[in-house]
Amino acid sequence: MKRIVFLLCIVLFPVFSSAENNKEVKIQIVTNMGKITVKLYNETPLHRDNFIKLVQENKYDSVMFHRVIKLFMIQAGEKYAPDDSVAARSAGKDPDYKIPAEVVYPKYFHKRGQLCAARTGDDVNPERASSANQFYIVTGKHFTDHELDKMETEKNIKLTLEQREAYKITGGVPHLDGAYTVFGEVVKGMKVVSKIEMVSTDSNDRPLKSVRIKTMKILKK
Fold it and tell me: Which of 21, 33, 36, 121 has the highest CB neighbour count under 10 A?
C-alpha cells in the first residue's frame, strides 16, 4: 500500500501543485442527457488530482453510466468501455492502481448530489481504497426522524444536526457514511442527474438505453 501511495503522489504532483492555492476545481460532465458540473474538494487531494488527470487524458470520453439505481445513485467509469457492447466491456481495462481512502467524515457525507469514489467490498479491500476510475453521484431518498433515530441505535452512531437536516430535507444514503471517499459535489445539473436516475434498467441495474458521458472538461476559474 505504501508503494501505491508513493507512486500516486509522483504521478499527481504537478496537478496537486497547481491546486494548492485552495481554489476548488470544477469539472463539467457533458452527457447525452445534459450537463452536470461538479466541484472537487481540496481536502481529498489524491482523489481530486487523479480525477483531474483522467479528465485531462480524456479517459471518460464516451464512457457509460453503467449502474443506475433509483433512490440510491448513478455510477460511471467502468473499465473505460467506449460503448455498451459486451465485447467492449470485456475488452476494457481498469487502471492498475487504486486511490488510498480519504474519508473526511462527518464534514463530507452521503447527502444528495455528492461525488464519491466506488470501490470493492471490505472483505477484499479492508483499507477501503478507491477505484481509480469509477465514481458515483448520490441521489438517495428522504428520511424521517424516526428512521434516522433507528439507524443511530442500530449502528451505534450519532448523526450531526447538519446530517439529520440534510437527510430529511435533501435526501441521501446515510448507510454509506464513513465507508467511502466523498471527494466532490454537484454544483449544477442535478436535474440531469435526476433524469439519469429515472431511466429504465435491466436486472443488473444497467440502463436499457445507453447513458453516455460525451466528454469532461475542466472549467476555467
Answer: 36
